[in-house]
Design a protein that fits this description.
This protein has about 270 residues and is α/β, with parallel strands linked by helices. Helices cover about 25% and strands about 20% of the residues. The strands form 3 sheets. It has a 7-stranded mixed β-sheet. A two-stranded parallel sheet has the order 1-7.
Length: about 270
């Protein structure tokens, strides 16, 4: 019997002329759709040796190895010097936004998942003496971003749940010299995609096992640093070659490179 392809819902509905518009930093009255974020599911191989992205067994549980968190240091290296203001799009429970805030940056963080934003605020409230991001429950496709304002904008596993041309609004929100980074997800469509997926599977298994062992050795009273609330997930649909073509038009001069755990890194620097 052939492998059954799972189904997944998609979030990040684009705004329309009839959709309400909210303004970042003001009271948000719109009711945006739930958030969906990619999580690098393990690949499965069918009888014809075609790799497809399956629903991960750990979905809905506390995952011991988070692919997005794994790349935080790489993303932080893209933060420009003297960065004063940052925006984290699709912030989830706010871990990366808090890391930005700990650098002394004023951070706006938005996500359409009300549950994730509530957890983000709760987690930030437990940090004594630290600067907290400004968390807002909102959909970026329905937010009017300030023009030429942010020195750094990040999107972690969220851009594939909205029209890709949303990056034009993010580009316009960058201050001169500002940097936009996208940690994106893509579906496997080519032999090169499948080769990277196969290479990632054993590395992913070792990483998960390592983290699980460390958790077992950690005292029961010691926190793991992982939030219990997880933003919902869905699978990406736009292949990497198309992302490259659209990014070349909307973000001229940007760089895109493939990463191991079912991710790509896009970096755009505003030279204007």
């Amino acid at each position: 019997m052939g492998a059954r392809r799972p189904t997944a819902r998609c979030g990040g509905v684009a705004g329309s002329q009839s959709a309400p518009v909210v303004f970042l930093g003001r009271d948000l009255t719109a009711g945006p759709p739930p958030s969906f974020r990619g999580n690098g599911a393990v690949e499965s191989v069918s009888g014809q040796c075609v790799i497809t992205r399956a629903r991960p067994l750990w979905q809905g549980r506390t995952m011991p190895f988070d692919h997005n968190d794994h790349y935080h240091r790489l993303l932080l290296r893209q933060v420009p010097r003297n960065c004063g203001a940052a925006l984290d799009v699709g912030c989830g429970t706010g871990r990366f936004a808090r890391r930005l805030a700990h650098l002394g940056i004023e951070v706006d963080a938005i996500d359409p998942s009300e549950e994730a934003i509530a957890e983000a605020r709760a987690q930030s409230g437990r940090i004594a003496g630290g600067r907290s991001p400004r968390f807002q429950h909102a959909n970026v496709t329905e937010v009017e971003l300030p023009k030429a304002h942010y020195d750094f904008i990040s999107c972690l596993a969220s851009i594939h749940h909205m029209p890709f041309d949303t990056v034009a609004a993010l580009r316009d929100a960058l201050a001169p010299g500002g940097v936009l980074v996208i940690l994106g997800c893509y579906p496997e469509k080519t032999w090169l995609d499948w080769a990277w997926s196969l290479a990632a599977v054993p590395v992913n298994a070792v990483a998960r096992l390592t983290v699980a062992v460390k958790d077992r050795l950690r005292p029961a009273s010691a926190p793991t640093g992982r939030e219990q609330v997880k933003a919902p997930v869905s699978q990406p649909t736009v292949p990497l070659p198309r992302i490259r073509r659209e990014a070349a038009v909307l973000l001229p001069g940007c760089s895109i490179r493939r990463l191991l755990f079912w991710r790509y890194l896009l970096v755009f620097r505003n030279s204007g």
